[in-house]
């Protein structure tokens, strides 16, 4: 349903137009309403006892910044995400203005991303169990490089590199999100 919603919003954006401020505000409001509606069923979701019974003491919070492993984890996350943080605000502008992509075509790139991520996350999880989070980050890191390099290789007449880029980011994010959480739990000091 998320993919269909993404596609529908892409077509709605084309229908509303880029200069119709109230139409765009309405779409954002609809998105917010559906976000809240999607969160309501999760309020009654079962929480495993391990999570609900855990307690982190104040001493643990004070100890984390002093812990060398945790500091390295935070620095590693910052450095790993820095290139994306710098280019993320310009990606959709590039898609619309330089590549002259329609909003529905941008929605297709996001669908590509989510489908690839959905199918590769279980595979990445199994590899993390066997090889560890650090190895997974080294394995998926080049996917982000492909993502960044695909944009200068794209033109309005050749947008297939953008789809390849988003597929690579789907694999990268699947592996990275699991690996980072695993590494985070491994870096928290036991107090």
Protein architecture, described:
79% of the residues lie in helices and 0% in strands. It has helices spanning 2-16, 21-39, 49-52, 58-63, 68-98, 103-131, 133-150, 160-187. The radius of gyration is 20 Å and the shape is globular. The model has no long low-confidence stretch (mean pLDDT 81).
Q: Write down the Rg.
A: 20 Å
Distance separating the two termini: 43 Å
Number of helices: 8
Largest sheet, described in full? none
How does the overall form come out from the CA principal axes? globular
User: Got a strand count?
Assistant: 0
Task: Estimate the mean pLDDT confidence.
Answer: 81
Q: What is the percentage of strand-forming residues?
A: under 5%
Question: Could you spell the SSE succession in H and E letters?
Answer: HHHHHHHH
**Structural class of the helices, strands and pairings?**
mainly alpha
Task: Name the helicity range.
Answer: over 70%
Unreliably modeled segments: none
Topology record:
Blueprint: H1 2-16, H2 21-39, H3 49-52, H4 58-63, H5 68-98, H6 103-131, H7 133-150, H8 160-187
List keywords for this structure.
191 residues, mainly alpha, 8 helices
Brief digest:
The protein has 191 residues and is mainly α. The chain has helices at 2-16, 21-39, 49-52, 58-63, 68-98, 103-131, 133-150, 160-187.
